[in-house]
Specification:
mainly alpha; 0% strand; single chain; 111 residues
Length: 111
């Protein structure tokens, strides 16, 4: 898996992050102009979002690692190893995050 895929993927992720941050900033500025407190509108879900994203990134990294191991041992073709391992471990990460977030009582889900 060469840079021919990772460079456009990284560029796309960067563009999405910039657009997200710009929209979030615009929303906060509108709230300030209307006299609202932007911090009061937080629902406390940011910590759960961070947990979910952290587990997803760990799942993707483990998937790439095992995909590389399986393809180097010639157990699976390279593209099958990467795609299957990344999707399996990302799915496992989402399931783990679901159970971890449901263990946290709703009143304790704060920033």
């Amino acid at each position: 898996m060469n840079g021919e895929i990772l460079i456009p993927l990284g560029f796309f992720a960067m563009v999405v992050a910039i657009v997200y941050l710009a929209l979030r900033q615009r929303e906060r500025m509108k709230m300030i102009n209307q006299g609202m407190d932007p911090a009061a509108s937080n629902t406390g879900l940011e910590s759960t979002l961070q947990l979910r994203l952290g587990l997803i990134f760990i799942g993707i990294a483990v998937g790439f690692l095992l995909g590389d191991i399986f393809s180097s041992l010639h157990w699976l073709k390279e593209w099958v190893a990467y795609i299957s391992m990344v999707t399996i471990f990302t799915g496992i990460a989402l399931i783990v995050s679901y159970y971890l977030i449901n263990k946290i009582p709703p009143r304790d889900r704060k920033e």
